[in-house]
Design a protein that fits this description.
The chain is built from 6 helices and 9 strands, in the order βαββαβαβαββαβαβ. The chain is an alpha/beta fold and about 220 residues long.
């Protein structure tokens, strides 16, 4: 498995998982383009600050980037939220903006070029916990459910044009924020960001050329 000579665009590249995906893709030979809403000040020219929830800004940036061989839609977010009937419009919109709209805008911007080239891969991040509704997580699980259905729909639309679309479904990811939110948990049972990044890079590689529309659980020991 390698990503040699592929241009890999990673959204949410400044997060814990995004950084791991960037590092793994580079190690596999890819040219990586990093997108996020903010970066540290000492970053390289391959880092682009963009609000992916802004369709026009996203489209303009992808025109600047040019060819995209692999799109890794890592951008997303989690919020427990209140009970379903107490979720405000703002809370609902926030979960859909960060998890769904960012993906939709990136896909809209990248797919026409992939179709023109007759090849490409898209890897999305769903959630194992969103395979069914969860108490206190209705807006989040609804948004990630949409990500999963979009993955399947995109695959059905694009697989005949040489484009693979798949998603990983992680359980709890071992990130600094999750450790801070859940002190005392058995972190060894969680999914490491490096392990999840490796699976995502496999799905973006030519080795996964026969894999279409898969929602792949990556659950660690949870």
């Amino acid at each position: 498995m390698n990503l040699q000579d592929k241009r890999v665009v990673v959204t949410g590249a400044n997060g814990a998982l995004g950084r791991a995906v960037v590092a793994r893709a580079r190690a596999l030979g890819a040219e990586v383009v990093q997108l996020d809403i903010a970066f540290p000040t000492d970053v390289g020219a391959d880092c682009h600050i963009v609000d992916l929830a802004d369709a026009a800004a996203t489209a303009a940036l992808f025109l600047k980037i040019g060819r995209v061989d692999v799109l890794m839609n890592v951008a997303g977010g989690f919020d427990m939220g209140p009970r379903t009937w107490e979720v405000t419009d703002a809370q609902w919109d926030a979960m859909f903006a960060i998890n769904v709209r960012t993906l939709q805008n990136a896909v809209r911007a990248a797919v026409p070029g992939m179709i023109a080239c007759g090849r490409g891969s898209i890897v999305n991040v769903g959630a194992l916990g969103a395979l069914k509704g969860q108490g206190g997580m209705s807006a989040y699980t609804a948004a990630k459910s949409v990500v999963m259905r979009l993955t399947e729909s995109l695959s059905a639309e694009l697989k005949e044009q040489g484009i693979n679309v798949n998603a990983v479904l992680p359980s709890l990811i071992d990130t600094p924020r999750n450790r801070a939110d859940m002190p005392g948990a058995d972190y060894a049972r969680w999914v490491g960001v490096d392990d999840l990044a490796a699976v995502m890079c496999f799905l973006g590689s030519d080795a996964a050329g026969a894999v279409h529309g898969v929602l792949l659980p990556v659950s660690g020991l949870v």
